[in-house]
Amino acid sequence: MFLHISKIFYLVIASSWFKQFEVLKMQGLGLQSLKKNPALIPLYVCVAAGAVGAVYYMTRLATRNPDVTWNRTSNPEPWQEYKNKQYKFYSPIRDYSKTESAAPKFEE
To answer: Which residues cross the membrane (predicted)?
Structure first.
């Protein structure tokens, strides 16, 4: 009744249906087509730069944001660590090391 796994694997690999998809590879994704179409290189560079920027920003948010804590035992209140620090990405107007935080003290 049931087919053996090796027979199923052979049927899928050897079938003409599977071989159709080997022929239909997308143009422009291989090194040979990049050599034929060098105008695609800036597109790939921009997409790669966008992906790297997105990963960098997500990593920065996960590691630098005062609302995120990775180890609750060593730092139970991570928001208190950034009282006099700048956690914005860019703020040229204010010097955060000299200003006092307007947030109330939780323990007192």
So the answer is: 39-58
Interval 31-52: pLDDT, tens: 888 888 888 889 999 999 999 9
User: The tokens of 83 are what?
Assistant: 């009282």
Domain annotation covers residue 70: no
Can you list the residues of the chain whose pLDDT is less than 50?
none
Determine the pLDDT at residue 14: 62
Domains held by the chain: number: 1
